[in-house]
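Holo model, pyridoxal-5'-phosphate. Inputs:
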Amino acid sequence: MRVAYSVKACPLIGVGAVIARAGLDASVASFGELLAARRSGFPASRMELHGNAKPDEELAGALRSRVGRVVIDGAHDIERLGPLVRKRVQPQPVWLRVSPGIAVDTHPHLRTGGLDSKFGVPISTGDALAYAREIVRTKGLALVGLHAHLGAEVRDARPYRELARALVAFANEVRAATKAPIAEIAMGGGLAVPLRSGEEVVGLADYARALAEPVRKEGGALRGATIYVEPGRGIVGRAAVALYRVIGTKRVEGLRAFVAVDGGMGDNIRPALYGAEYTAAIAGRANAPATEEVAVAGKFCESGDVLIRSVKLPSARAGDVLAMPSVGAYSLAMASNYNQAPRPAVVLLDGGRARVIRRRERPEDIWRLERR
Ligand SMILES: *Cc1c(COP(=O)(O)O)cnc(C)c1O
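Output:
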């Protein structure tokens, strides 16, 4: 089994460097992520390029960089790649991303494996097999694998087992129909991590078994295939703690108290975007009795900018530091400068050392591309 870090979860160069050093591959969703991953130290040959809408420059750049795998996500990818690879001596290895028609119990914005998704080519309509044939006919491309990704925050092992079954069955069909030497089965990411205490998620051993058993026991000609997984959140989700300064508290008699902090949707849009739920503590008083149920409000000009709807805290005072754990995935990766807010600094704690791997933004950083 090979593990490819899904760079989009946290594309910070310094974080990628730690993961690259551990020997993982990288799964990138754009040419920009490919460049960031390369700076982190991942060789391009150990990267997979994803995307449902890859412009020509992205494909050309990735090919120039000698990307390991291009993941084909539709007819347009085959049409655009064809002219770019025609003269290749060594064909470009590609995967075909399929949609297996497996719906998982997660937020609709986080589902990607169903039929009604912008990602992947459906197996059930016959399109996936037709595209596989088209790839095999295209000079300069080598179809070496199949890929599917169910979506994010999957909390039980059952859909992974279904996914593995569907992929090996389809891979065997493609091999029989096209003679393509498929030997790689990529099962995406999506493993949930607990964001709050007591949350139930799939254990790693159960996860690995659910993916590997159908391949090893029922895989037929694909029994020895290399299984790829692409976790993002599973690797970095729990690795980061956001620190906010408490600005003040607004109490609405009989209704709710809002603890307002100096950040919010500009550095973590997930609660506003799809209802992600976090917990928090007052740093330095984590063990003080939690006396009040509060909402943690961000500073941005949107009513939806509430980082936590409900959490029990000791009475928060202006100047306190509020610590919000498990913010490593898709928080800074989706950060914006809304309200002209500079994005925060990032400190990496690694091997007992602390260092700044991204300095705090200044207003002039935000304006550097503008002219009047
Ligand atoms: C985003 C993504 C992942 C990673 O998802 P996580 O929920 O962070 O594990 C893996 N594969 C693909 C194709 C993705 O788009």
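The chain has two domains: 2-237, 240-366. Residues 240-366 form a domain with the Lyase, Ornithine Decarboxylase; Chain A, domain 1 fold (CATH 2.40.37.10).
Archived with the compound record.
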